[in-house]
Amino acid sequence: MREKKHFLIKHGTILVVTIIIAMLSSGLTANTLHNPIIRTFNLIKGYGFTPDTYVEVDDQGIAVVIYPPPIGRQYNPVTISQKAFEYWEQYCNGDEGSKQLFLNTANWLVENATSRGEYVVWEYQFPWPIYNMRPPWVSAMAQGKAIQVLIRAYSLTSETKYLATAEQALRAFYHEVHEGGVTYKDSEEAWWYEEYADVGGRESRVLNGMIFALLGIHEFYEYTDDEEAKRLFDRGIHSLKNSLSDYDSGRWTYYNALGSLASEKYHRLHVNQLKQLYEITQDSYFLAFHDRWQSYSRWPFFIREFIILHPNELDIVIVAINIIGVLGFIELGAFVLKGIRVRRERGGKRGEKSKIGVRTCMLVLNEFTHDARILREAQALVKAGYDVSVFALHKNGLPERERVNGVQVRRIRLSSRRLPRTRAIQLIKFTEYALRAIPAIRKMVPSICHCHDLYALPIAYLIAKWDGVKLIYDSHELESAFPNPTWFRWISRQLEHFLIKRVDKVITVSDSIANEMVKQDSIKKPAVIRNMPEYVDMTGGNRIKEVLGIAEDKRIVLYQGALRSDRGLDRLIKAMRLVSSNSVLVLIGSGEAETELRELVKTVGLETQVRFMGRVPYDELLSYTSSADIGVHAIPNLSLNNYYSLPNKLFEYIMAELPVAVSNFPEMSKIVEQYGVGVVFDPEDVKDIARAINELLEDREKYARMKENTKRAKKVLNWENESRKLLEIYEQI
Fold first, then answer.
1. Has residue 730 been placed in a domain?
2. What is the mean pLDDT of residues 357-378?
3. Is the Cβ–Cβ distance between 522 and 514 less than 8 Å?
4. Higher per-residue confidence, 335 vs 376
5. How many CA atoms lie within 13 Å of 76's alpha carbon, on the beta-carbon side?
6. Nearest Cα to 123, choosing from 69, 162, 107, 133?
7. Would 536 be classed as within a structural domain?
8. Distance between first and last Cα of the chain
9. In a domain, 486, yes or no
10. N or C, which end of the chain is more exposed by having fewer CB within 10 Å?
11. How far is CA 586 from CA 608, 615, 630, in A?
């Protein structure tokens, strides 16, 4: 009875303290996780999800937005105008070089304005599913911002093309959305200017887009004193005043008229925009809403949401996350203390050799079913006498424990695995994986921990720190170059920058990535272990033609790998229209883009010249590969990671003795040129892709020479040679 009472008091106290800490620290959570929580909340409520992006500039200084696949690289008129404002600000602050960049952007707006009769618009050439936008769609915000850029370009140069284009752009505000314009005419005197405008699109009435449109119209009026612009501005102001209260939730602002809560960034933007409108109009109505909305951020989170106001679902979610977080830290602290006690009891005797060899654990955050690189490395170590265990994620249908060619595989079962794949939920899954994997790994008493994923590296680092284990970080990608959300890339970069200096050895997959890591992190150059297949003597054959029923006289152009939207496969398929009709493109693999690619093949009428084989067993892959004539890889330059890539399929093609046609990126070009095994092309240019393939198909002498070169190259570019580097690392560590 006494023990039960003690248990209740102890755990009751922990729970009360946890709730108090969670309440008091909710403001920190609300500030740091506000945007991802809002996004997840809006997605669950059915209001849609806006993908994160990052921005580059082309050689003329024009902004290019890199969206997540399948949208990819796009010229966004709003982003282009925003970049122009940056150039304008720099020029006004004395940077003469920014003047030309600003004018380049203004010229782009003139040259890319699309005429729709008496007015011009800037069209978006990609879909925006959240509002059912289908290309080409238009935007009042884009019109307003472009007008501002053009007016400033005219004031700078007096060139009439800028003013003329701005005047034509202004006329778009007279046309309703169903007519191809950007306006909803609520009444004769109240017009709403729509940021996302498309016939058949969802009427979203995004608040910040409407206000940006008004600011653009007003700048045109201020410069030209044009009465029509003044009337457009007044009608928009009238509509905005009628609607403004609908964007007030009582504790935060709405992003649009659909009930989607604004992120913190957009809430602050709304506040600043209302201040601008008050300064322009001197209308106290805007000042009142400005003060009200600004006050929503003034009080500490807990006081504002739980005392002044009534808590809503979002507030409860934030506090719940905090409670889980605090309990997690308590559990982690208890776990660390327990680990220290266990280590003392064992006398700190970690890192010793077992009877059968040095124990090595490998960590991955996948199911370990198709990761050829990790399997090759693990098998090479087993052959050299190491005792290797791979810790991976469990998935239904897979065994929790198995032995694969001497490699012990342990898959960690997660009760959170069935939850959605949002980033907030992924953090919960990671925490569960860590709490389950760490004790299992420590129990096997490893001497070396080999981590194959940045996000598994914190787990490996903790084990290495606590138990004196040697730590290897095997970076398969340039993580900092992935097109992830800005906040997520920043966290990933800081995490890698901190941990990479604390590992015993870094390995990566190409020289260019290794050099970039040196530049980013000021570390010793990582060892480079490339993704190469084991040496095999190929016999050619007709396996692909037999399976797909392709005529004997056809030449096979092969792509093998994931069918993803970021692999340039759409351009490769389109290029086949320009390739010799005596050839067939065969795609081996599967992926989320397969349905879309099949539709594209039908659309361009290439059903007989492009064939899909699906996924084949990895141990049979090279027998299919060797029955092709050319291996092709048209990966586009969507990121520095792509640009520096050195994919395993390149070496698989060479091992199968196929001349290759690949993207003209540094690492692939170096292999192709050094060993004379193929040609390169610009992956953004359909004609150049076709040119490269035709060059191999039509020049028989060149093809024969390159095929002969692959036979010599494969004797060097194989896993038997490459694995020696791995064994040297393990001997030295």
1. no
2. 89
3. no
4. 376
5. 23
6. 133
7. no
8. 55
9. yes
10. N
11. 10, 12, 10
pLDDT digit string (tens) for 240-263?
999 999 999 887 899 999 988 887
Q: Which of 607, 591, 589 is nearest to 599 (CA)?
A: 607
Same structural domain for residues 264 and 167?
A: yes
Q: Residue 296 has what pLDDT?
A: 84
**Closest CA relative to residue 456, chosen from 442, 443, 475:** 475
Residue 77: which residues within 8 A CB-CB, separation 6 or more?
109, 112, 122, 124, 139, 142, 145, 146
Over the stretch 78-95, which tens digit does the pLDDT of each residue have?
A: 999 999 999 999 999 999
Around Cβ 2, how many Cβ atoms within 10 Å? 6
For the question of whether the overall pTM of this predicted structure is more than 0.70, the answer is: no
Q: CA torsion, points 585, 586, 590, 591, in degrees to nearest 10?
A: 0
Does 10 share its domain with 135? no
Where would I find the beta strands (DSSP E) of 70-201?
73-74, 114-115, 120-121, 183-185, 191-193
> Total structural domains in the chain?
4
**How far is it, in rounded angstroms, from Cα 671 to Cα 678?**
9
Query: In angstroms, rounded to a whole number, what is the distance separating the alpha carbons of residues 732 and 216?
Result: 65
Q: Using one digit for the tens of pLDDT, what is the confidence trace for 428-480? A: 888 888 888 988 998 888 999 999 988 889 999 988 888 889 999 999 988 77
Number of helices and strands (H, E) in the chain? 27, 21
State the pLDDT at residue 480: 72
What residues make up the domain containing 331?
1-44+312-348
Q: Are residues 55 and 181 in the same domain?
A: yes
CATH code of the domain in which 145 resides: 1.50.10.20
Same domain, 375 and 336: no
Considering only 17-31, 179-193, 545-559, which range has the smallest mean pLDDT? 17-31
CA dihedral angle for residue 506, residue 511, residue 515, residue 520, rounded to 10 degrees: -60
pLDDT in tens, 670-708: 999 999 999 999 999 999 999 999 999 999 999 999 999
Percent pLDDT > 70 in the chain is 83
Residues 112, 213 within the same domain: yes
Angle (CA) 490 494 495, round 5°: 115
- The H-assigned helical ranges of 528-665 are 543-548, 569-575, 594-603, 621-625, 640-643, 648-655
Same domain, 626 and 662: yes
CB 727 within 8 A of CB 385: no
Extract long-range pairs of 284-290: CB within 8 Å, 24+ residues apart: 285/241, 285/244, 286/244, 289/244, 289/248
> Among 473, 493, 528, which residue terminates a domain?
528
Q: Is 497 within 8 Å of 521 (Cβ atoms)?
A: yes
| pLDDT of the residue at 322 | 62
- Indicate the residue type of 371: D
Within this chain, do residues 188 and 322 fall inside the same structural domain, yes or no?
Answer: no
pLDDT in tens, 132-143: 999 999 999 999
The CATH code of the domain that includes 401 is 3.40.50.2000
